[in-house]
Prior knowledge:
This protein is of the alpha/beta class.
Amino acid sequence: MRRGLLVIVPVLIFLAVFGAARLAGSVDAGSSQERNPFAAQGPATWGRSAAATAAEAAAGPDREVLERIAGVPTAVWVTPEAHPTAEVADFVMNVVESASQAERTPVLVVYGITDRDCIGGESSGGLPADEYVDWVGRIADVAGDRAAVVLEPDALATAADCDQLEERTRLLGDAVDRLVDAGPAVYVDAGHSSWTDPSDMAAMLKAVGVERTRGFSTNVSGYESDADETTYATEVSRALGGAHFVIDTGRNGAGSNGEWCNPADRALGQEPHAGSGGILDAYLWIKPPGESDGTCGGGPGAGEFWTERALELAANAGW
Length: 319
């Protein structure tokens, strides 16, 4: 996932036409999209997380820190590589049932779009276009109205650079339809404050039917500060007529140093909690702290747990 400023070429005419066509066929979003899924109950903790596994293998003070990280509610990433179409429903059911028993809201990150991470290459993969929406649909049907979904981090922010705006718009629009019809609260990913102009991002979100969803997410896997993200998200929201949003604070406690792949000297951010009733629905830990951005920056492969970095993030946060 590259973390640089994206300059959108003149694609707004396409977005306006495509978005108008999708809007013409839109339906009432329903109650799941009209309420903050974190207002009545907080996000869930997944007991089978990589942090929990790392804690079991550690000892002494390191184990205590890793157990504390594992105890913070964090999103569960769903990828076709780990959870293919034939198996994904069972996995999502386990996550949702565990959260329901704890009276918490599970946060699922759907991360399987075609040619994923097309410019960074660290998290490359995804499903063929003709298989993608069926995979999303199986997630949606099991999640129902008991979960929140962050849809495809980076997919819109990289679409123009990857020359995939038309395909991404279509696939994400179809995914929005399947998810919203099934019931989970949906947040379409909107990059972050150092990446895309707010008006350009708003146009892309409109084109995929964000008006049917709960809103959008920002700073997923990012390091941008709360202040910068709030400013960016508020501008995007304003361009969308007041859409709601969530911000990933898992690793932004020291802000950004301009690097995106395993930058050193970062810190855990504020722990997840709901907003105060405005357009900010919640601060969430969406990217699990301690999971690597990729082999750049000295880390293991993308998504692998990096114990040393997790402990560094915690120490820099004063844990």
